[in-house]
Design goal:
single chain; mainly alpha; two-stranded antiparallel ribbon; 43% helix; globular
Length: 484
């Protein structure tokens, strides 16, 4: 069906108006959010002018807290870290499946799929970050700008994980047009030029370049944090460094991944959990491994850990095979699964909470990942002794004997195995397969057939949301999805 120019312009303006309305409302609402989950600050938004908002530490903190969010907004939204961003990665890996999410496990995805991570939430968060970066000029408030740079970086990076090929994927073509994301770095120009909200997709390399630039600014400006304190619930220099190590690893930049990870290790601030701690470690908060954690409470429960996951996220035989005997294995991570009564099935129990609660903190960056990221970069460079030392640092804390090998392929395989054991249910599974150009194998022992997905399959990435490609004609759909 042909659409005339007048109709297209009207649709585009409708899109702009809806988008601008959403982000302005989200922006305004954050001003009434308190720094903690207490009573709402009832001072009306329109009683403060913009200069007051961005020149006072209290109002600026409240405003920026909107980016961290609740279960209905910000990074904690159920369509982002509150659920979909993590669970979609889990289901599309090889170690977990859910009886209620067969379509994701089978890679049956459309641009309207409800399980897709939220594009709108991410860009609404980015708007808040952009506003803080633009409008905060007081040198004494520069740490807030640092937090905003981190928030902009992590939202872009997480969108890239979902909607772009991994940088090292054999089909990535990082310098080709439309392989990355729309990069929006402005906030104040929206009213003057609403069409600035309709950028096309950058290249994948340009997207990663922006992420790295923001993280370096965050390293410079963010506050210093200490482990086991509430500081881990906000962006910090360490959080920026740990995320930068991950970004460089995903790009195949081994030297920089090692350098950034080593900054965290050499600081000697964080400690790996002991095997004895592991069984109920995810019911606790402010633990020794946490570098950046999104804290949820009874006022804003996240849906990852509600009934759907506790009763419906099952362990595949693939994961059980690498764990070994789930009863007698020496690996303490056996305590993160539990056998379902009257069946031969096991379910994920890592996030089981005390009776009467339905929330848990989401560990976005933790020390075990930093160790394994550095080990992988060492191994890829052929620095096998260093890689094995890092792997064994983790193995010893998980109740396992030392690993030994002088063969690069074996060391890399051990690192992959440790990542699967360690990060079960934490949202790494899918990207860990395709960034290493592995095939997501067929999975048996589930209620439905799950076929293999090769690393160059178009389904290795999500389709761009339908509303975005319909109303912003500058955004090109990912190949293979057509207009669906």
């Amino acid at each position: 069906m042909k659409v005339n120019a007048k109709t297209m312009k009207k649709n585009k303006l409708n899109y702009i108006n809806r988008y601008a309305f959403r982000i302005m409302i989200a922006s305004a609402l954050t001003l009434s959010l308190p720094a903690c989950h207490g009573k709402l600050n009832l001072e009306p938004f329109d009683s403060l002018n913009e200069n007051q908002v961005f020149s006072d530490s209290k109002t600026l903190r409240n405003y920026l807290n909107g980016a961290y969010g609740t279960n209905t907004s910000g990074l904690k939204n159920s369509s982002f870290y509150g659920s979909s961003l993590i669970t979609s990665q889990n289901y599309q890996g090889v170690d977990l499946y859910s009886t209620g999410s067969g379509s994701l496990s089978q890679y049956i995805m459309t641009a309207n799929s409800s399980g897709n991570p939220s594009w709108t939430v991410a860009y609404s968060v980015n708007f808040i970050a952009n506003k803080v970066i633009e409008k905060t000029v007081e040198p004494s408030l520069s740490t807030f700008k640092g937090e905003a740079h981190f928030i902009r970086a992590i939202t872009l990076f997480d969108l890239a994980r979902a909607y772009c090929r991994p940088f090292t994927n054999l089909a990535a073509k990082p310098d080709d047009p439309n392989t990355g994301l729309p990069i929006v770095l402005i906030a104040s120009g929206i009213q003057a030029d609403p069409f600035a909200l309709l950028p096309g997709r950058a290249t994948l390399r340009e997207t990663y370049t922006q992420i790295i630039s923001d993280l370096k600014e965050a390293q410079n400006l963010c506050p210093v944090s200490e482990p086991k304190t509430s500081a881990i619930n906000y962006a910090s220099k360490d959080a920026a460094t740990a995320l930068l190590a991950r970004v460089y690893l995903y790009m195949g930049d081994w030297d920089n991944a090692i350098n950034e990870a080593s900054k965290i290790v050499s600081a000697n601030k964080y400690a790996l959990w002991n095997a004895a701690e592991l069984k109920d470690i995810f019911t606790k908060s402010k633990t020794s491994e946490e570098i950046f954690t999104l804290a949820f409470d009874a006022g804003s429960p996240n849906s990852i850990f509600m009934t759907e996951v506790k009763s419906g996220m099952f362990i595949t035989p693939n994961w059980l095979n690498i764990l070994g005997d789930p009863i007698n294995s020496a690996d303490a991570r056996k305590n993160h699964i539990v056998k379902v009564a009257n069946t031969n099935n096991y379910r994920l129990s890592k996030y089981d909470q005390p009776v009467g609660t339905a929330f848990v903190d989401v560990r976005v960056l933790r020390y075990a990942e930093v160790i394994l990221n550095r080990a992988e970069a060492y191994a890829e460079k052929g620095m096998l002794m260093e890689a094995v030392t890092d792997v064994n640092a983790l193995r010893s804390k998980r109740g396992l004997p030392p690993f030994a090998s002088a063969l690069q392929a074996e060391v890399l395989d051990e690192i992959k195995k440790q990542r699967r054991l360690e990060f079960l249910g934490e949202g790494f599974a899918k990207v860990d397969i395709f960034r290493k150009n592995d095939t997501r194998p067929a999975i048996t022992g589930t209620p439905y057939i799950i076929n293999e997905i090769k690393p160059d399959d178009f389904r290795a990435v999500f389709p761009i949301p339908l509303a975005e490609v319909h109303y912003n004609k500058n955004v090109k759909q990912n190949p293979g999805y057509g207009d669906n």
